[in-house]
Structures are given as structure tokens and as C-alpha cells.
Amino acid sequence: MKPYYILAALPFIAILGGAAFVNKIDPYVLGIPFFLFWISFWAVMSSIIMFVIYRLDPLNKEVEE
Q: What confidence tier does 47 reach under pLDDT thresholds 50, 70, 90?
């Protein structure tokens, strides 16, 4: 199994699996409830992770002629 397959599953696990554990309002991060911060953080991290996967995938390498 290629490492970027595991990396691609990380946002899915963090948003859906982690939501049950971080469903709290009390700690505020940047002035918003922790749950909203968690979802926003992983939305941004998903984009970053997908960029890393794009760069690691050998099918996306440019062919030099």
C-alpha cells in the first residue's frame, strides 16, 4: 500500500471520527467553539494534504522531452 493512500484517509478519519470526541463548546479557539475550529482546521488541512499527495503521486510528474 502506498503511503499517500493512508495520507488521503487522514482528513476523512479526523473529520468524521474525531467529531464524536471533540464535540464540545467550552474551550474556545480563536474565539470560536472548539468543534467549529476542528472542522475548519481539517478543511484547510485537507487541501494541504491533497496537495502533498498530488506532489507524491508519480503519475503527476512532468515528462521531459
A: very high
Number of domains in the chain: 1
| 17: containing domain | 3-58
> What b/e string do you get for 22-49 counting C-beta neighbours within 10 Å, with b at 16 or more?
eeeeeeeeeeeebbebbeeebeeebeeb
pLDDT at 64: 54
Grid coordinates of 33: 467553539
**DSSP labels, 27-52:** SEETTEEHHHHHHHHHHHHHHHHHHH
Is pLDDT of 30 > 70?
yes
Q: Which backbone phi and psi does 30 adopt, to 5 degrees? A: 55, 30
Q: Examine residue 51 and state whether it is found in any structural domain, yes or no.
A: yes
- Partners of 33 in the beta sheet? 28
